[in-house]
Amino acid sequence: MAIKTVKVESKLDSKFKIESTVSGHQVIVDQPAAAGGNGEGPTPLEYLFVALAGCIGSVGRIIAMQKRMAVNGMTISVEGDLNADGLLGKPTVDPVGFKEIRVSVDVDADMTAEEKAAFVHEMDSRCPVSWNLLNASSVKVSAV
User: Which CATH number fits domain 43-134: 3.30.300.20, 3.40.640.10, 3.40.50.720, 2.40.50.140?
Assistant: First the structure.
């Protein structure tokens, strides 16, 4: 079994801007100016969708390489519905997270509709981000 530890170091400034270092890359998370941020980067929720689309696409490329499938590319769309009241501390009966996340994958390949559906299903079943959204991984948050 190959266990890989993924680590991100992040710093929050005096507003909402969070700068993270990931594998030597700088990534910025921010809130829109209308929400008190500077709009210097996507929000955490938008990055969640970027991570999901990126994982599905990456796994798709891995599968295509493993099976020697001619996949020219993919267009992956992710959207979801969120009641923001919970994250703002307002009372709500809705969950704090998304009620539903919808992913559509347009595969650019010479495949039948059934082959594309099977390919997309395999991508989703092998995507760790999708798995973590569907299953309860333990999250341990602590003060240092």
Answer: 3.30.300.20
